[in-house]
Amino acid sequence: MHRDIRSANGRKIYNMEIQISQINKLIYARADVVKYYQNIEVLTKAEAVLFEKLSPTIKDSKILDIGVGGGRTTKYLLPLSRDYTGVDYVRQYAEETGKKYPNAKILCGDARDLKEFEDETFDFVLFSFNGLDCISNDDRLKALKEIFRVLKKGGVFMFSSHNRDYQYFNKFPWQQKIHFSLSYLLFNLHCLYYLPNHFKLKKHEIHTEDYAVTNDGDHRYSLLFYYISIDKQVKQLTDIGFSGVEAFDMNGETVESDISSLSNHYLARKN
Ligand SMILES: C[S@@+](CC[C@H](N)C(=O)[O-])C[C@H]1O[C@@H](n2cnc3c(N)ncnc32)[C@H](O)[C@@H]1O
After folding, report:
1. Are strands 224-228 and 83-88 parallel, antiparallel or unpaired?
2. 132 lines ligand 1 (CB under 6 A)
3. Per-residue pLDDT, 11
4. 143: part of which helix (H) or strand (E)?
5. Which of 74, 89, 117 should be mutated for ligand 1, with most atoms under 8 A from CB?
6. Concatenated DSSP letters for 30-52?
7. Å from CA of 101 to ligand 1 middle
8. Pairing state of beta strands 263-269 and 151-163?
């Protein structure tokens, strides 16, 4: 617990930690957000590259897909796996995704407490699309320990996380690359319209040496996301017991540091 750690503006982080996890869970349950995740189906470039790289691990294996949402990754992993389980802490996703994929086991469950699974159950655990970033630092460490526990020896954990070294970290769209097009203008107007949400959440932001939790433009400036640099993320994973940690950029290329990707993908192994 970080009871005596303070954020950049001097407030105690412990109280803010609890609020971050609660605020984000409510947003993921919001009808328009549920609908958004139910309608996306395509893998990112990095996911496609890494699923291909991991195909010997994934094929005929036991898979846990955490934060399964609308089942974007279920579509790709279910046909390959021997035994696929998806979990999400928002009941609407678990119910609807279970109906969409009747051959998959889809449960309502929380990464911070995977008590329904025995130690060393899964060959491959996935927490995709920066899902791990919507819980607080304490909760993140709990979730990582749980994932390590349920992973078999020789198993692989794959996830993505927001990159604190990103060149446009904590910048508004108009502080980034400027284009002259109608779509750019409309996008900036959309952001300006929802900016009051950003200022409401600003008081929950945390900036420490190891990580930051900030509000960005996602879902109309309504979430608080964890951002971490690759070196700190590798240390966080190895401190928990993971080994052979590799980081990847948005194209699925191996990187040791990266300023050009908004988020990085990671593979972490249990030996
Ligand atoms: C960014 S969405 C990604 C959804 C889906 N995996 C995809 O790639 O389209 C993150 C998902 O993680 C879920 N989630 C966040 N924290 C969670 C937790 N602690 N346990 C289980 N699910 C969680 C959210 O409800 C949401 O469905």
Report:
1. unpaired
2. no
3. 57
4. helix 137-150
5. 89
6. SHHHHHHHHT--PPPHHHHHHHH
7. 17
8. antiparallel
Atom 12 in ligand 1: which residue has the minimum CA distance? Answer: 67
Retrieve residue 258's tokens: 């990266």
In which element (H, E) is residue 195 found?
helix 182-201
Q: What's the 162 CA to ligand 1 centre distance in angstroms?
A: 14
With H, G, I as helix, E, B as strand and everything else as coil, classify residue 202.
Answer: helix
pLDDT score of 216: 87
Query: What is the Å distance from ligand 1's center to 217 Cα?
Result: 17
Tokens 């699925």 belong to 252
Residue 195 has pLDDT above 90, yes or no: no
112 lines ligand 1 (CB under 6 A): yes
Q: Is 89 a residue whose pLDDT tops 50?
A: yes
Say whether 18 sits in a helix, a strand or coil.
helix
At residue 33, what are phi and psi to the nearest 5 degrees?
-75, -40
- Give the predicted TM-score (pTM) of the model: 0.92
How far, CA to CA in Å, does 72 sit from each of 67, 98, 203? 10, 12, 33
Question: Which strand (E) or helix (H) includes residue 77?
Answer: helix 74-77
> Taking all residues of the chain, what is their mean pLDDT, rounded to a whole number?
92
Contact in structure between 143 and 132 (CB atoms under 8 Å): yes
Q: For 160-169, 210-219, 235-244, which range has the lowest pLDDT when averaged over its residues?
A: 210-219
Helix (H, G, I), strand (E, B) or coil at 233: helix
Residue 3 has pLDDT above 60, yes or no: no
